Each structure stands twice: as C-alpha cells, then as structure tokens.
What does this fold into?
Amino acid sequence: MPITSICFMNSNKPWGGGEKWHYDFARLCRDHGMRVLVVTNQPSELAEKLRPIDGIEVFSLPVSSLSFLNPFKRRKLKNKLREFGVQAMVMALPADVKLGGLAAKAAGVDKIIYRRGIGVATKNTALNRHLLGQVITHLIINSQNTGRTILAHNPDMVPKENIHLVHCGFDVAEFDRFPVQPLIEKRPGEVLIGNAGRLTHQKGQKHLIEAARILKDRGLSFRVLIAGKGELEEELKGLAKELDVTDCVEFLGFVSDMKSFNAYLDIFALSSLFEGFCYAQVEAMVCEKPVVAFNVSSIPEVVSDGVTGYLVPEADSAAFAHKLEELIRDPELRARMGKAGRERVINEFEMMKTFRDFLAVLDK
It folds into this structure.
C-alpha cells in the first residue's frame, strides 16, 4: 500500500544541513500528494520556515535527550501520530529516535525510519541495540561513510537489508534561477579561491590560511575569500596576521547569496576535516568551480579526485597548497574540472533523483 501520510521529526533548534533536508523532503512529499506532519522542538528554525507553507502541519514540543523517559510526552506524541494517521515516520537525531521511535511504535506506525546525516559512531548500549534493532524498520544514510561510521561499535546493530543509501538532494534548476548579483570586485589577473562555512575547527580554515602563506611565497596572484562567521573568527584572523597573508586572505562574514559568491570564484577550497554532506561544495560544483578538499569522511563520494577537483591527505596544508597552485596556473584545467563537477551533481545528487530513491525506501 503506498504511503499517503508521513511524519518528519527533527528536534534540532538551529538551521543546518539536516534541517534543510527535512524541509526539502517535507515539501516534496506534500507535492507528491501525501499528508505531511513535521514534529519539531521549541523553539525551532525549521518550524518557523515550515509554518507559512500550506499543506504541511507543524507540531512542536520540547525535546531533549531524556524526553523519552517522560510518559506524558510519549503519550502526547503517540496520540498526535494516531490522530494524523501517520504511516511512515522519518527521524533526524538520536533524541528523536528515542522519543519519536517509541511513540511511533506505540501508535502502530508501519515505517519507522532513522535518517542519519553525519558519520558519528552509535554507542553499543542496550537501549541503542533495542531502538535500532527492534524499533527502527529502516536506516537511511546520506553517504557510505555515514553507514560505516554509525555501526563502527557494532556492525550487527542494524540488519544490512534495512540500511538504504539516499544522498542529500540539490535542486539544480531552482539554484540556476537565482540571479547573480554584484558581490566581489575582482582585481586584474588574480585567481579567486573561495571557502564557505562556519568558522570552527571542523571546517578547518586554518589549513587554508596556512596554504595561502605557501602560495604567497611562490609569487602567485590570488585571493582567498572566506565566507562565514563562528567561534574561531578572531583566532583565524590572528593567524592570517601572524602569517602575513592579510593582503590575500579576506574574511567576508556571513554571505547569504551563495550563487553570487560562487559566480566570482575560480576555485572552491573545502578545508573541512569531516562532513556529513557539504552543500557548499555542491553549490560550487553546480557553478562549475573545481574543488580542492581533504580526503576525509563523505567528501570523496562527492568530489571525484582528478576529475572534478583534487583530494589531498587530511590536514596537509602543503599538499592543499600544491593542488591549489596547479589550478591557479592552469585555467583550462579549472574549466574542464568545473564542467565535470556540474555534470556529476546533476547525475548523482539532483533533487528529484534522490527523492525517487527516498520513495523507493518507503515502498520497501
């Protein structure tokens, strides 16, 4: 029987890649003719973005890692799922699996799905073995790396036939419709290298700044543009000053218009030390920019080494600089890799393809 009523549960309060996935797929399910319920935390940026949308009901309640121990919350959520007639439930976080999974099981929901978006190992506890082995009916992973990592402590925690790969989708047609606005003044003869993401240890911008020092020593004409804010902003600016690269490393702060940002770039530098699925690199690839990245986590599943860009050993700033230099010196190589990157996104990560993969999981 086809699924006609679905619930997405995501209790993360801020907005991020996981919330974007739930937002996109809730809308796609609505457009596919399903009744859609989305359960969120209080407060929740996801809830605020979804509430104005017709055809999607938002149900908010306070959720923490211990909420599953509260019988009143479990009953409240169970009753809501029954009232809505939910046939499939898709959950984002461990707290959602504990509260939502148990409520869905009690409500008689047929498909209870844990959608895992980042490669962090699940602890081999009795509770997790019960939830993943007896409550969850399907585990959706967004990359092969996520699948390997989540079960690192117990490979048998989830039956292999219940694990399904569904990549994060990217709406190329919608992105292409955005106009390019004046954003960056490019100097004659310089190559622009861009990086976008929170200024945190995970995003690894220190390695890009160190690479900039190496490139400067080689007399190359380039500028590194770092888009984003975060807890390491002052530390990273201090490093740029210490390495004497403030003339070729520029901090732009938060940039909302990524289409225009990428349009001005020649190369995208992904300095992250781990990623679940990095939308920033995909946006750059759609804009036909080659990517230089560390060979870590799920990144090799997106960047094809030597075809759409280059992968270098983790945290190796010198190797990062070497591959950036190759691209700086060869505009034809940049163009060729950029075109291959856009084709790869269209063939592997286009939104409707990944949504069809998701629907196939619901049919299992």
Residues 5-169+350-363 form a domain with the Rossmann fold fold (CATH 3.40.50.2000).
